[in-house]
């Protein structure tokens, strides 16, 4: 028999230390575990109204898939840039915003760099920092919100990047616009400011508009995605806004043809689907108006959301609450796996889905029901 190979010694040390990303429970997994026929999936912050109809219509007309996509995506990048007074050169596209982050980190980070992030926040930022042998400097949230003063104080001569996820994932909280403006002004010019705004379309008036900083502060990169409000979670399309001179270097490490033709065609069509965006935001606002008073009646606290999900405090452990809801046909995300013990991350659904959620939550708070 061949001698077993020690692959842990073969791969890069950073890879050997990494824990793989663990997505939430799928509906098929939930059905297999509990044998229920119907489940409500509120675990991954998807749009409960589905995908932009204009995007779906555009996909129906696709042909010649054997032809490579035009990898420049000039028209699409122009459309993404124009609302913010930017040019196509200010846009970097990718196979979802996770791909864009990996590309940016590949171009920017060297061993010994520091990346300042909130704790908890989206897990791929500290994981990708570790992959490139950089150090993720984790700054605890304050009352569920980025502590911008503490993040600024954490900046050292080794700091290459500061990442602000707004709204934050998993807490759904937004930073104060005035506080963020002061923070951005105080940040050293040599430090790259990365603003992840995956849920920007759901944010209330008066929130931080990251694109404005991409236009005014050179070393600023703003991440956006069409996976959330546009319903592209399976199709995958994300992009970054930033200084053209910086993105020109990042382009050198971008994987060629990383954005498929279906994704590019659907994205371009979806940008004209204002009706779908309005309906999606209206559904989300109606959900918040229903859920928050109900949470209060049940004695369950949720941070104020600026996104399409909530971080709900539960009695007992988050995993116990997650399992209780799962057994009742509601798929959520346990905060124990997200650095948010004692809370569930729950997507705001349709009126029918939200009603089923509240009915199931009563089993977690029987005394308050």
From TrEMBL:
Cite the Gene3D superfamilies for this sequence. Aspartate Aminotransferase, domain 1, Type I PLP-dependent aspartate aminotransferase-like (Major domain)
InterPro entries associated with the record: Aminotransferase_I/II_large (IPR004839), HisP_aminotrans (IPR005861), HistidinolP_aminotransfase (IPR050106), PyrdxlP-dep_Trfase (IPR015424), PyrdxlP-dep_Trfase_major (IPR015421), PyrdxlP-dep_Trfase_small (IPR015422)
Q: Which terms does the UniProt entry file under GO BP? A: L-histidine biosynthetic process
Q: Does the keyword Nuclease apply?
A: no
UniProt keyword list: Amino-acid biosynthesis, Aminotransferase, Histidine biosynthesis, Pyridoxal phosphate, Transferase
EC? Answer: 2.6.1.9
The entry assigns this protein to a family as follows: Belongs to the class-II pyridoxal-phosphate-dependent aminotransferase family. Histidinol-phosphate aminotransferase subfamily.
Pfam families (UniProt xref): Aminotran_1_2 (PF00155)
Q: Which cofactor does it need?
A: pyridoxal 5'-phosphate
- Taxon lineage: Bacteria, Bacillati, Vulcanimicrobiota, Vulcanimicrobiia, Vulcanimicrobiales
Q: Which GO MF terms are attached to this record? A: histidinol-phosphate transaminase activity; pyridoxal phosphate binding
- UniProt xrefs under CDD domains: AAT_like (cd00609)
- For the modification N6-(pyridoxal phosphate)lysine, which residues carry it? 228
Q: Which HAMAP family match?
A: HisC_aminotrans_2
Q: What is this protein called?
A: Histidinol-phosphate aminotransferase
Question: Hey, which pathway is this one from?
Answer: Amino-acid biosynthesis; L-histidine biosynthesis; L-histidine from 5-phospho-alpha-D-ribose 1-diphosphate: step 7/9
Q: Tell me what reaction this enzyme catalyses.
A: L-histidinol phosphate + 2-oxoglutarate = 3-(imidazol-4-yl)-2-oxopropyl phosphate + L-glutamate
NCBIfam families noted in UniProt: hisC (TIGR01141)
Q: How does it assemble?
A: Homodimer.
Ranges where the Aminotransferase class I/classII large domain occurs: 38-361
Species source reads: Vulcanimicrobium alpinum
Query: Signal sequence: where?
Result: none
